Amino acid sequence: MYYQYKKQFQQSLVEWFQKEKRDLPWRKTKDPYKIWVSEVMLQQTRVDTVIPYYNRFMEEFPTPEILAEAPEEKLLKQWEGLGYYSRARNLQAGVREVVETYNGKVPDNRPEISKLKGVGPYTAGAILSIAYNRAEHAVDGNVMRVLSRVLLIDADIAVPKNKRIFENAVMELIDTEHPSEFNQGLMELGALVCTPTSPKCLLCPVREFCTAFNEGNPEELPVKSKKVKTKNLHYDVFVVQNKKGQFLLEKRPEKGLLANMWQFPMFEQKSNIQHTNESLLSTAFQVELINREKLLSFKHVFSHLVWHMDSYRLIVEQIGNAPENSDWFTIDQMKELPMPVPMLKIWEHYKKEN
User: Which DSSP string corresponds to 117-153?
Assistant: First the structure.
């Protein structure tokens, strides 16, 4: 499709979206704060997974002011299980800027909204077009896939600088009267019809404008180079219980993966160490082992990292105080603490077995 068919392309896409769009909670509002929350949650997470999180989050933090004032632990607890927790921290930091600098109103222009913490070009464009009906590009993976096929763009979408090609293409094609429906239509088309493998071309509302369809090779696009090699790490994880029925948890560092989340004590498995991980645990946390039993083994996959985890239940006697950034908690107290998904998996298994 070349740009001379732009009007027909716009009309076909917008009408299809208005008729076929999924009924999603964030589509029932034009509130830029709520749309911002949904867009952050949808980064690297499936729509079906996000829906209950979004609904609970909006109940807990219905306004920018309430989210801005929330303790981080409460925020992380609401985000628990969604992963990529830096998204939540950046969202809160950006919302605080909105409350402090813009009196609680999310900026309605790209220069100002782009200065907010965690708001990149895509999120800025999504909020501006969906909430404020501004003709702004909002290019995510779905949009790049659709446009690479429609316009036969063979630039590698894994190369960050190539995103600009697709942003320019959207600005050439966008329906300035219906930018919200146009941008959401491109995203919805990529999610439901123009899928990575086996695209449903016969259901596509814009296939007559699609160069890849007309040339018979839609599955060859987009061009995407291989991901970075995955790193594998092996850990022993210990659900440590004292005679009072309390459990030992440690807080992860303030920076890095799963920052400030609570976890069971965890030690990397190494074949060249002289001491077992149980003895390292005893020394580090001032406990004496009474009983040990195996719980479960599994792997947890991050974007470029895989944790292979063997978990155990340990009954211990305390012989000293827990070190800094760790403590003993009752089951009720643990319910209030944000814990990463692999720890929750171990905990659910433990509760079933005991």
Answer: TT--HHHHHHHHHHHH--------HHHHHHHHHHTT-
- Rounded CA-CA distance 87/69 in Å is 17
Q: 325: domain CATH number?
A: 3.90.79.10
Give the chain's domain count: 2
pTM: 0.88
Domain range for 18 = 3-220
Domain boundary among 188, 220, 252: 220
Catalytic residue among 20, 39, 59, 215: 39
Q: Averaged in consecutive runs of 10 residues, what is the pLDDT profile of the chain (354 residues)?
A: 79 98 97 98 95 98 98 96 94 98 98 97 98 98 97 95 97 97 98 96 96 93 87 97 96 93 96 80 94 96 93 95 93 96 97 87
Q: Which residues contact 347 (CB under 8 A, 6 or more apart)?
A: 239, 264, 334, 339
Q: For residues 68 and 217, what is the distance between their CA atoms, to the nearest angstrom?
A: 48
Is residue 188 annotated as a catalytic residue, yes or no? no
- What is the C-alpha separation between 300 and 231, in angstroms, rounded? 12
